[in-house]
Amino acid sequence: MRRENILIPRPEELMRGEVERRIQGALTMPPKSGVYFNTVVVDFESLYPSVIDAYNLSYETIDCGHPECVDNRVPGLGHHVCRLRRGIYSILIGALKDLRIRWFKPLSRDESISPEERRLAEATAKLLKLILVSSYGVTIRIRGLANPSLAESITAYGRYALKEAWNMAINSGLKPIYGDTDSLFLDNPDEDALNKLIRDVKRRLRLDLAIDKRYTLCVLPRAMKSYFGIKPDGTPDIKGVTAIKSNSPPIIQEVFRRCVRELVGVRDRVSFELAKGRMQEIFTEAVRDLKSGRVPLEELEYTVKLRFDPTERAMGDEVLHQPYQCAVQLLDRGVRVGKGSTVSFVKVKPFTYRGRTFTVKPTSLVRGMHEVNVDDYIRSMRSSLNQVFRRLGVEFTEKPEKAVERSLIDFI
């Protein structure tokens, strides 16, 4: 290190006399809300590590003080970056990034080496990714490594890259509809124009832009950082809203899956409107089955892992949550249940047990559909589905049952 005229600095030297301050984060371009068909998402590969490498961002290169470097400004900030010397942090992060992308990642897919070597390469690539993901965070959060000027320069170049890519997309004849941190959503892009954008970003910004996802259907609400997409294989991609929970009963999960399948073949507005109608029919059919008692109890079962000891919970005065209501009933019947156990139950009409009002029973103790709280299941199903699909303009409602025509004789 000394031969290279390098000394390891102390934490206070890395701070360079600065004090902690709030750092402006990533850029989000407001979404152009609506329903889109054939949406492509492109993103910058390892954005923050890449800008550290491409723009020579390091502790000693920010505001280096060389007269010939003063005009090499960080976009939107008063800082400048050194042109005369490559920064240590930039060299380190750049080397680790190249090692991951150009060596270990391809090696993990190389069929000419043994499976064990591929697994080792994959594990190394993941470890390097973990280190690289932290390359920005340590400059702002880790005591002894933090430096506000370096941190805000990294995010400034990230914002600059996204904004420039957005403008370059427009100039290439593409239609960007949303941008967030390191990703651009493009509406029905021409493939030649898309490839040109990727080349232009590499040439002008020295950053790698790549296709990340494709959606046959994409819904953007007005709210930022949320969207709903259907991939070509039918997989839903939902961000910013809680999808159907894994412990939801099978009937709700199946209705959700059937609704998603209706969206897989959507390619235009007409087929989208038809799919919305079929989704409402799926919900109506499930409601009808619930009300008529044609649903097996196993389809109504909630399965939950207990986080606390149920015996301790049962002795308290607080309201007993449904999983613990189930556990107490099992314990009273000699079934061993404790912290970490998984219990399965069905929601039933309220009843009194041990002087408390209970609303669930273990599935094995439910005698039939006449005990089930059907209205609760309908509310839960409607709420869960609306939370996901409302963004598509689908509002699940219970259709009123047709009135039965009666004559005067029926009342005599």
Structural write-up:
This protein is α+β, with helices and mostly antiparallel strands and 412 residues long. The protein folds into two domains: 23-230, B family DNA polymerase, palm domain (Palm domain of DNA polymerase); 245-412, B family DNA polymerase, thumb domain (Topoisomerase I, Chain A, domain 4, Orthogonal Bundle), CATH 1.10.132.60. The protein is 42% helix and 16% strand. It contains eleven helices and ten strands. It has helices spanning 11-15, 47-54, 88-107, 115-141, 148-171, 191-205, 250-264, 269-292, 310-315, 322-332, 374-389; strands spanning 28-29, 34-44, 176-180, 183-187, 209-220, 227-230, 236-239, 302-305, 342-353, 356-362. The chain has a seven-stranded antiparallel beta sheet with strand order 1-3-4-2-5-6-7. Strand 3 (176-180) and strand 4 (183-187) form a beta hairpin. Helix 7 runs antiparallel to helix 8. Residues 402-412 have low confidence and may be disordered.
